[in-house]
Amino acid sequence: MSVQTPISGLPTPSGTPGAPKLLEVRDIVTRFTTDRGSLTAVNGVSLSLERGRTLGVVGESGSGKSVLSRSIMGLLPRSNTERSGQVIFEGKEISGLNDTEYRELWGDEMAMIFQDPMTALNPVMKIGLQITESLRFHLNMSKSDAKDTAVALLKAVKIPEPEKRFSSYPHEMSGGMRQRVVIAVALACGPKLLFADEPTTALDVTVQAQILDLLAEQQRERYMGMILVTHDLGVVAGRADEIAVMYAGQIVEQAPTALLFSEMKMPYTEALMSAIPKLTDASHTRLAAIGGRPPDLVNPPKGCAFSPRCPYVQPRCHEESPTLTPSPTAPEHLFACFYPIGSPETEEVRLRIAAQRLMATAPEFVAAPANTPTPAQQSPVPAPPEQTEGM
Amino acid sequence: MFILKKFGQLLVTVILVTLFASLLLELLPGDPTEVLIPSGSDQQREELRQELKLDQSFAVRYSTWLGNFATGDMGNYYTVSSDRPVSDRLWQSLPVSLLLMFYAQMLALFFAIPLGVITAYRKGTWLDRTSNTAAFAMLAIPNFALGFLLQYYLGVKLGWFKTSGYASPNESPIEHLQYMILPTITLAVGQIAIYMRLLRSDMIATLQQDFILMAKAKGLKSKRILFRHALRPSSLTLLTVAGLNIGTLIGGALIVEVVFALPGMGLMLFEAIGRRQIVAFQSMVAVIAILYILVNFAVDLLYTVLDPRIRNANKS
User: Fold this and answer.
1) In whole angstroms, how large is the CA radius of gyration of chain B?
2) Which partner from A29, A148, B163, B170 sits 20 to 30 angstroms from B154, CA to CA?
3) pLDDT single digits (tens) A38-79
4) Alpha carbon of A159: minimum distance to chain B alpha carbons (Å)
5) Are the C-beta atoms of residues B155 and B161 closer than 8 Å to each other?
């Protein structure tokens, strides 16, 4: 890359034997006090991350993925939030820090890229100042050094005419450009750990890939650990080393990316996968959706949180919650399911669903004489509900 | 172009305001000359009537005044002994009102801005609740009651400040302040409460914004987040209300001026109505209207300083 990182002293080598991991999170629980009672947004999540690696955290809205990254960073408001568990950053426990101690880490050691670039930048401050202020605060740069660094950062995130843009206001730029500025702000002090909280959700599809490529490139160059939070499995597919699928505040499946895609175990992961439209589908194929809603986190359902929506649900799932355990075949593949994809029970259900679907789409093939096409609703065999709606 | 538009607005407003104000004075019954020169002879009255064009229609009187005013002649203030130009009295009263307004606004903003910011930041804590209660109490006290209380305790009993009268700041600055402090506090107290509440509610909304969380995630200090990031986008309502207040106070704070015997615009206008000084009244109303519009023009300019997005809206 021709772009030089302007930050000195970084990156430092990591992953050397004996060196502590960049980030280790142990059994983190985050509860919010609401009018309706205590809401468990994150329920016992553990994960770890090395420098230079990317962890994708995937889940629907409301699955707790954004709260998780904010909990790790310590960014949640202190009032009406209850947090437990350990967050170990470079071998140091940080979950008990006060705001003054956190400020040393925020922006400097760890940074966050926010979802919506339209609202993440201060509308009344020039973007240059929004980049330089953390440089001046954390790195004690002089005004002119900070300006040079900021211009270099704008250049690094591929903003045209960076010198001119330095004194632009956010409303003078497009969404994609603003997200580049947000990234530049996050990268400013050379963080070791970067949280990207749905960095492309608010952007045009055409801009999404550019932003993701930019993030991947900067992450490689700066040797950062990155937690990429998204609801789109497609976003993390080619970009994360490891993927954690979250549901109802818990990690329900976690595996290296290739393994997850080739051998997904958790029905929820499969449902997420099938919700991605495929180019090979015939046109007017119905978009698969996951039926039902994410569970109410104030009163979570008994048993497995996904059981009310799971197509393969068995009586046991309504009674007990599965824990995240390593797969017997691949220990780096963790999942929380009694009847994972591929088990005899789910295969049976899968076959039954497939049969029902076949009958629903071609009833004449099964029940009616071939020469008189009968509408499905008049078929002697009642059409079973479609899978997309009936789960 | 912008300036021309504003100037047009100014002209229209001045004409409308003075027209209606004069029409209202027309409604007062009786012969103005009987009030102007109660002991004057019939001949003196007739002369004065001629001079004031009282024998002619309202339209003629108004347009004559307008013509004179436009050329800088504000007319005379009529008394039995001698007629003095209105401008003389205006130059005495206007500075009193302007200074009172300025001090009161400064004092109110000086307390209201930090209080508004802190109560928004510490929303729901004892500090917030206490200052809310205090704000309502401050709003509930009538001006004159507060004025009398301050006069009695700080002026008469403790003797720290002067209770009534005025001294020009050029002649004796210290005395000037002694006269001005109590009326300033009296005026400011209610406004501190209003400004604080306004800023607090806008600030609470701003503090929910993503860019505040992003500023926090940059590791900035709370003070910088509050005053550099949150205050400016939260202060537009405050600025609007403060601007309107400034405009109103240029016309004088009548009650406070009466209580503290300050010779400001409020007292002078009041006097002009009672004494049927129609020309003087029209001129003063016109001056106040002009200043009012200029202040609001300044407020418009300040909006664009506070929020760059408005700047572009003005250009297009």
Assistant:
1) 24
2) B170
3) 999 999 999 999 999 999 999 888 888 889 999 999 998 888
4) 20
5) yes
Query: B219 vs A134: CB contact, 8 Å cut-off?
Result: yes
| Other Cβ atoms closer than 10 A to A131 | 25
- For residue B222, the Cα-to-chain-centroid distance in whole angstroms is 35
Q: Does A135 touch chain B (CB under 8 A)?
A: no
CB–CB of A199/A211 below 8 Å? yes
Contacts of B112 (CB under 8 A, 6+ apart): B191, B192, B193, B194, B195, B196, B199, B238
Residues of chain A with pLDDT under 70: 1-18, 362-391
pLDDT tens sequence across B239-296: 999 998 988 888 878 888 888 888 889 888 888 888 888 888 888 888 988 888 888 8
Angle ∠(A135,A54,A210) on CA atoms, nearest 5: 70
Mutate to test the interface with A, among B122, B208, B211 (most CBs of A within 10 A): B211
> Of A164, A171, A197, A173, whose CA–CA distance to A183 is shortest?
A197
Residue B191 and residue B59 share a domain: no
* Superfamily in which the A23-240 domain is placed by CATH: P-loop containing nucleotide triphosphate hydrolases (3.40.50.300)
Angle between helix B143-150 and helix B173-207 axes, rounded to 10 deg: 130
Same structural domain, B180 and B215: yes
**Tally of CB atoms within 10 A around B238:** 24
